[in-house]
Amino acid sequence: PVARASILFVMIVDFDQHARRLGPEGLLAFLNREFTRMDRICARHDATKIETVGEEYVCAVGVLPADRAAESVEGHSAILGRLVRVADAILHAQAPGVQFKMGMHTGPVVAGVIGQKLPRFRLFGDTVNTAARMMQKGVPGQLQFGEETRAQLPGWVRVAPRGEIELKGKGRVAAFLLGSRPEAPQP
């Protein structure tokens, strides 16, 4: 188990419309272009890509031993700041006609490789589910997160309260959006 990680879900808005417009081969090229761009952004900011499923991309900080070592020295807000930079860079890399909505959550996860045929590194737990629900209930072109993440953010991150939203299995929870472009000190 990992005591504290931060998970980011990114979803391509209006995916079905893109699929109809592009056809199968065009859709594959589109997804490859968008997800490869996200891969590069994650690599630049030391975030770990977890998986892609359909039109969703998942990445995290705090799940690998190097992250846990950095967290023990710098605190979780420092590594969470890297994930905020990832989200901001992805939002600012949106191509014309393409929008993303994002959800992030911070908390405990279980991480490990599962399966023998096509084994994959996976994350499990309420933190993962909550990040996905934050994305699903999110706002196109925005990063949405709850109090658990807001409380861990570095001081340079600007936050805009959204109000309460209804999350499956959680009831009404306070939601926040990433404010104007963060003035992040560069690593």
UniProtKB/TrEMBL annotation:
GO terms for molecular function: adenylate cyclase activity; guanylate cyclase activity; nucleotide binding; peptide receptor activity. One of its GO terms (cellular component) is plasma membrane. This is Guanylate cyclase domain-containing protein. Keywords: Lyase, Membrane, Nucleotide-binding, Transmembrane, Transmembrane helix. Transmembrane segments: none annotated. Gene3D superfamilies: Nucleotide cyclase. It comes from the Eukaryota. GO terms for biological process: intracellular signal transduction; receptor guanylyl cyclase signaling pathway. CDD domains: CHD. It is found in: Membrane. Residues 6-135 form the Guanylate cyclase domain. PANTHER family: GUANYLATE CYCLASE (PTHR11920:SF335), GUANYLYL CYCLASE (PTHR11920). Its main location: membrane. Pfam families: Guanylate_cyc (PF00211).
